[in-house]
Amino acid sequence: MQLHVSKKGLAAFRRRALRRYPKEYLETLWGCANADGSISIVEFCPVEIEEASEDAVETSDEDAGQYGIRDGPLTQLGTIHTHPDGMDCAPSEEDWADVEESRELIMGILLIQKIKTRLRTWTKFYFARALCSVVTK
User: How far separated are the first and last CA of the chain, in Å rounded?
Assistant: First the structure.
């Protein structure tokens, strides 16, 4: 399955996430299914965060990550969150449990690592326990 991701939206999420480093950060992913069977992520939307630490984030938005909620032509597809100072972009078992509970279609992970004095990032998206083929536009 091919996933089209808004380059502008991803860059804005990255900026917001880096401002919150070293705490974990989460946003919802909004988009649509395309006629060719691919999926497009059009918007990255911040959610109200109650509590965040270096390895967890709690939101007060009960709908965060609930796949299928519609807002006009867009559907909430899932969430993207950070792994500050993680080893890789691989989802943890807790990440997969959250995805299954909320029935998310797409999960994104932004790995943030501090190398010397610079913050470096890598992003991966997952679809139903599989790595997506990503095209940024």
Answer: 16
For 51, the token pair is 């509590």
pTM score: 0.84
Cα separation of 48 and 26, whole Å? 9
DSSP structural state of residue 60: S
Nearest to 57 by CA among 118, 109, 113: 109
**Residues 6+ away with beta carbon under 8 Å from 7:** 136, 137
110-122: pLDDT as tens digits: 999 999 999 999 9
The CA–CA distances, whole Å, from 63 to 27, 29, 38, 133 equal 11, 12, 24, 27
> pLDDT category, 137, cuts 50, 70, 90?
confident
Residues 6+ apart with CB under 8 A from 82: 17, 20, 21, 24, 25, 26, 109, 110, 111, 112
